[in-house]
Amino acid sequence: MHKLPSLVALLLTSGAPLWAADEPAAPAAPPSAPNPFAELSALPYRLPRFDAIKDSDFEPGFEAGMAEQRAQADAIAHNPQLPDFENTLVALERSGGMLERVSKVFFNLDASNTNPQIQTIRQRIAPRLAAHKDQIFLNPDLFARVEAVWRSRADLGLDPESLQLVQRYHTLFVRAGAGLAAPEQARLRTLNERIAELTTRFDQNVRKATNDGAVVIDDASALEGLAPEQMGSAEQAARARGLEHKWVVALQNTTIQPVLAQLKNRALRERIYRASTSRASGGEADNTGVIAELVKVRAERARLLGFPDHAAYVLADQGAGTSAAVNRMLTELAPAAVAKVRRDAGELQSLIDSQARAAHAPSFRLQAWDWAYYAEQLRKGRFDFSESDVKPYFEMNRVLQDGVFYAAHELYGLTFKARDDLPRYHPDVRIYEVFDADGSRLALLLTDLYARESKQGGAWMNEFVGQSRLTSTRAVVIINLNVARPAEGQPALMTFEESTTMFHEFGHALHGMLSSVKYPLLHGTATPPDFVEYPSQFNEMWAREPAVLAHYARHFQTGEPMPQALLDKVLAAQKFDQGYATTEYLAAAILDQSWHQIGPERAPPAAQAMAFEKAALQRARVDLEAVPPRYHSSYFTHIFDVGYDAKYYAYIWSEVLARDTEQWFHRHGGLDRANGDFFRAKVLSRGRSEEPKELFEAFYGGPAEISPLLEHRGLAPTLHNAGPHG
Q: Fewer CB in 10 Å around end: N or C, the chain?
């Protein structure tokens, strides 16, 4: 997942929502102490001065940054010279430097190292950021200048990237409501502020419910099936909560928790599952009311802007273009995935029944908390390996150094040097300087890989500094994972899925680091979600590519490579249980569209929010008892906080492009420097300097095709006649 593509995008989607807005303001820094965000950092690559930044710097930094940008925008709007490309759009690109610096640090830390003071600041600042965005994008004099440049664009003699900048700014202003009459703009401002408040509250409720929902175990025997290092992590998590002689299973962001594949104790599996699915749907951190109001307010805003619903508004500026295109893809894929998952469920039920007969015990009906456990047994029987056989070959640091970095070197000529001399915001963070093939300095990469209570769940990439030739900046990016911290002195061993996730997030990092554009608005990952996930999903291929696997999949104790027989089984098993993986994802994507393809009059009240969810899944025929959606609505942070609202489909839309690209690489020789350089030149370096469809087709040589995705997921026999994507 990628977050915070640019300051303009941040302002346009600004939704850092906050609760308890009536709490006292955080103390400002004393006048004698300069705010660390007031000036550009003097550190290499303008890395933020984490050793000088205090929580108390953020709120005054936001206020000063907003004041600075408002003054800059007013100066542009009232420039006595006739509007032109330089004095209007380039000037806008140069504005807001302080606000960008404080925003990127603050929202990064809120995601990866939050605390009560940061959460309170976010709660207060979110509606102010929304109001600030409106002051700029609803400024009639400023919009008049932007529109004047846009109308004369054909006569300005601009290069293609500059023309794209003109088009994007005009689109952003119009979508922000710049063309509305004054009364409608006043209502829009109110709606935007409320959306910012609600999305922040949603996020903070999820975090509280997730932390509070951790399952405490009194008897170690109930954890039978976990590996020793997992037992150590559970014991350490309990001690961190002040619990002695107990074990804690912390919840991760998805519905199905990874430990369900290993735990033999069925009662504990059910307990963990129910703790996961009940998050934020009641109690102190109840999100049902937040969802009900947020959906209604978003729909009202869309109606105000001339769209029938929020999904139509959002998708008009995405690669998909329309709700019909998204619905078509989801409805084409869902029947094949459900048919496959029903067949797989029958196999699992047969396994449960046979084991019950052998033990002379009563059988039971397959439930959601059973699927992963029995699927793991079926996989082990079919491919003769288990996760405990595989994990010793995926030590976290080796995966990073000998897998992720190795593939980047072979494809793009990149090299990485640890920079332990630079300040970090947390001891877990590691910093690497990245050098290009010619030895020139390219970027800084930060990694923050361990789970902790101050960090949100999941995995994501962000940036602290974006690349731009206009501002002479090179990228400073970070990848975040949530690998369980091992017991003292033990290695951090990952599953193959977690290793693949590391490659995924690094694909986003490459998109940011290899960016080579002039304008900040168009740099790196500043692309629609249904394209931004494309380079990251493509980069996953190298996690399973034999030449790369052989380089990094080595035993953490002996250094011996993974035996070829085991490696073959791991690769062969990649299509196993894809019916489940596809169905749980599609159910979540359908939920997202269901919530956002309704007008304000159809938004359900809080008491009916969960009933609305159930009905949506039933209509789409993905309401399978044993296969819940990857996220239930009450903790679906992607769509109710981090900017994937009406865009969660993007992962599978992008995966079509990714699997096409994987086949292209294989047709052209695979892990090869010439292939990497070509992909870099056509896609990774281009940001949004052209529209995503044009970038892909220039690389691929034609429109995307869905068949490689179906083959990859083992669904091809069911949908062998599927046509082109989109």
A: C
